[in-house]
Amino acid sequence: MRSGVEWRLCWENELELSDHIELTEFFRKTYGPTGAFNAKPFEGSQSWAGARPELRAIAYDASGVAAHMGLLRRFIKVDGVDLLVAELGLYGVRRDLEGLGISHSIRVMFPTLQELQVPFAFGTVRDQMRKHVEMFGRYSLVNVMSGLSVRSTLPHARIDKPPTRVEDALVIVLPVGRSISDWPAGTMIDRNGPEL
């Protein structure tokens, strides 16, 4: 772990308005360079883009928020099979600390995942992160799956758009309470809600 970086695990209702404002600024700076649309949800003091996390792992250093990962327990369907997961999302790491992100966040979050007694942690990442995630997957329990489609509801209903979207996503699965062999076979994952 990088020196000077301290992690804080906190439930959503433990965050103060000042925490949300600081996280909002962090996400605008982190997601903005990938496109203005990606930073748009983080307006005012809204520190989430789709579904709101219930638990967050937040790394801080002398410059403020250094990295972030959110968690939300939910039931998904894999080709129609209901499955309890802890969805991991809202990944972010400050550009000057690249390499601190997903792998460190998962290590910090793993004991809590075990306490929550979820069978799996699940998340999706952009294809641009494929090389980083596949490299991480070779050295850990994280399984990287491609060739899957993920259906999500849109966080805000609009008359001119369908209520769901389907994306071909790079899926990460971390066995927590069960073996990866218990993950259902299938190529369509239904989130049954908006992406975290």
From TrEMBL:
TM spans (from-to): none
Localization: Cytoplasm
InterPro entries: NodA (IPR003484), Nodulation_prot_NodA_CS (IPR020567)
UniProt keyword Hydrolase present: no
One Gene Ontology term of the molecular function aspect: acyltransferase activity
Pfam families per UniProt: NodA
EC number of the protein: 2.3.1.-
Keywords annotated in UniProt: Acyltransferase, Cytoplasm, Nodulation, Transferase
Acyltransferase in keyword set: yes
Protein role: N-acyltransferase required for nodulation. Acts in the production of a small, heat-stable compound (Nod) that stimulates mitosis in various plant protoplasts.
HAMAP family: NodA
Designated name of the protein: Nodulation protein A
Species the sequence originates in: Allorhizobium undicola
Upper classification of the organism: Bacteria, Pseudomonadati, Pseudomonadota, Alphaproteobacteria, Hyphomicrobiales
